[in-house]
Design a protein that fits this description.
Elements (H helix, E strand, L loop, with lengths): L1 E2 L8 E5 L3 H16 L3 E6 L3 E3 L4 H5 L9 E3 H4 L4 E11 L4 E6 L6 E4 L2 E4 L3 E3 L7 H4 E2 L4 H18 L6 H6 L1 E5 L3 H19 L10 E5 L11 H13 L2 E4 L2 E5 L4 E6 L5 E6 L2 E4 L3 E3 L16 E2 L5 E4 L2 E8 L4 E2 L16 H20 L13 E5 L5 E5 L2 E4 H15 L3 H17 L14 H7 L12 H5 L21
Parallel strand pairs: 1-8, 2-3, 2-9, 3-6, 9-22, 11-18, 12-13, 12-18, 13-14, 20-23
Antiparallel strand pairs: 4-5, 6-7, 7-8, 10-19, 15-16, 16-17, 21-22, 24-25, 25-26
Bound molecules: flavin-adenine dinucleotide (FAD).
């Protein structure tokens, strides 16, 4: 196995994953650790942290994609950054295997302390066709692709004659009625409404939005009456909300739905856009480590955020965020553990940074993590939302304001907050931007077309006299090939 060519030989704190937890831990520790002669190293396949609560707004075109991510290079200036994936951790040897993002030779990094912060991945089920037809909403690239797909399908659909092909193009489906799914369908419905206003060939009623949820209610984070209000609100906006319903097949874009009560078929229709937001699971990368894992695939931790086995905490091993099972000392959570959300991830990261520093350098004290969930806020497009803050419920415009206020504040780093807020003001002044970018998958198409010589003109039968002279050959056509040579394809 190769050795990383220029890695620091200082005592290392290795941070695996640069999302909420990784970004905050590295940011809090980088200078302090360097001052003590150590180094913080962050490994992530992405060069940025994604502010995931903004993904629905990126898909809806209310936030510029680059503003919803925080560049590691810009903000972790005292951290050793490696763009790659950690594929294995051998804590016995204090060594991690890193696979560079550019596909280069894997190499080994040794460390003194490790922070496992690789988050979660989209959780799917073995549904035939889902892998080929579905798209998640966990990355900035997915959010950008969704926005473009929606606007492209609306534009293309507007040129089609009414019929099954147009219905398929103009049907948008979200599976999963949690926060992410509800925010996603509400934001893209708002975007579709704005796009249709500018397109004389379509009415809003030509576009179909379907939300599929397997349980009898949506959004477990808000009260039952708020959840019912959200369903009514979405239905009033023309979204078909199908509760107690599950997707059973999705081959070639033909969706088959079943009723959860008796598993009987409930509906069948076609779509080009199937968005999957039915939950997350701890990143399976931890299975390539010698750390203790619980039955849900999470790294086992104690309240001090130390990785903990049956014989107690492991020296020099820490974890937090969606990848970990951290006890919820406030008495909340699910099964006694903190739920996977940003509220916990950020606060755990700050506590974890203090705990490592106290343990390694003797400054401060190692303390247990304890945080009572403050509630939840959700935005449903311009001026609409729902919130439950410390048991106080809000709906509509006040909830939308609370949502914007909270996330405007919670976005890490001042310059990012500023960009997002300026963008919101611009959207308010000039309305939602419904431009869709073309050729994102094929950016060289136009250049290749320009660089391709035009096809040779078919020569018309000519008289002997013109064939012998220079004639009227097109100035841009390829020169004649000598007899016997073959033209390049
Ligand atoms: C659409 C959506 C909306 C959300 N809205 C809210 C909300 O409104 N409120 C809220 O509290 N929470 C919300 N969440 C949840 C919240 O975003 C997560 O709980 C939070 O991001 C968890 O932080 P984390 O650091 O554990 O993981 P992440 O932020 O996911 O970071 C994990 C990092 O690890 C990296 N990584 C992955 N594999 C490897 C590897 N093998 N090696 C190295 N690095 C790796 C990833 O690239 C990533 O950068 C939302 C999530 C989604 C998807």
């Amino acid at each position: 196995m190769a050795q990383f060519p220029q890695y620091s030989d200082r005592p290392r704190i290795l941070v695996v994953g640069g999302g909420y937890v990784g970004l905050y831990v590295a940011h809090k520790l980088q200078k302090k650790v360097k001052a003590h002669g150590g180094i913080v190293t962050l490994v992530d396949p992405l060069p940025y942290m994604t502010y995931q609560p903004f993904l629905p707004e990126v898909a809806g075109g209310n936030i510029e994609a680059r503003h919803a991510v925080v560049s590691h290079r810009m903000h972790l200036t005292e951290t050793e950054l490696i763009t790659g994936k950690v594929t294995a951790i051998d804590h016995q040897r204090r060594a991690a295997t890193v696979e560079p993002a550019d596909g280069g030779e894997p190499f080994e990094l040794t460390y003194r302390d490790v922070v496992v912060a690789a988050g979660a991945i989209t959780r799917t089920f073995p549904i035939e066709g889902l892998r080929d037809e579905g798209i998640g909403l966990k990355t900035i690239e997915e959010a950008v692709a969704l926005r473009n797909q929606l606007l492209e399908r609306i534009e293309t659909g507007s040129l089609m004659a009414p019929g099954p092909e147009r219905d398929r193009a103009l049907t948008f489906v979200v599976v999963g009625g949690g926060f992410a799914g509800i925010e996603a369908i509400a934001e893209i419905e708002d975007l579709a409404r704005a796009a249709v206003k500018k397109n004389d060939r379509l009415e809003r009623s030509d576009i179909r939005f379907v939300l599929i949820e397997a349980m009898g209610r949506i959004m477990p984070e808000v009260t039952e009456s708020q959840a019912e209000w959200v369903v009514e609100h979405l239905r009033a906006r023309g979204v078909q909300v199908k509760l107690n319903t599950s997707l059973s097949r999705a081959v070639d874009g033909r969706l088959e739905l079943i009723n959860m009560a008796d598993k009987s078929p409930s509906d069948e229709f076609e779509t080009d856009t199937l968005i999957w937001t039915a939950g997350v699971q701890a990143n399976p990368m931890v299975r390539g480590s010698d750390f203790p894992i619980d039955d849900r695939g999470r790294v086992r931790a104690n309240a001090e955020l130390r990785i903990t086995g049956d014989d107690g905490p492991l020296e020099g091993a820490w974890t937090a965020g969606d990848v970990s099972a951290v006890p919820d000392l406030s008495g909340g959570g699910v099964g006694g553990f903190c739920v996977p959300n940003a509220q916990h991830a950020v606060r755990q990261a700050k506590r974890l940074a203090k705990n490592i520093y106290a343990e390694r350098y003797g400054v401060g004290h190692v303390k247990q993590y304890k945080h009572k969930n403050l509630g939840a806020v959700a935005g449903f497009g311009q001026y609409k939302g729902v919130a439950n803050i410390m048991g106080f419920g809000m709906k509509g415009f006040p909830a939308w304001l609370a949502h914007r206020g909270y996330h405007g504040m919670a976005m890490p780093m001042f310059e990012r907050k500023f960009r997002v807020v300026i963008n919101w003001i611009l959207s308010f002044l000039f309305r939602r931007d419904t431009t869709h970018l073309m050729d994102l998958q094929t950016p060289r198409r136009q250049f290749r077309e320009a660089a391709t010589p035009p096809p040779k003109k078919q020569k018309a039968p000519v008289s002997d006299s013109s064939a012998s002279g220079s004639g009227n050959r097109d100035a841009y056509s390829e020169p004649k090939q000598p007899e016997g040579s073959s033209a390049k394809a």
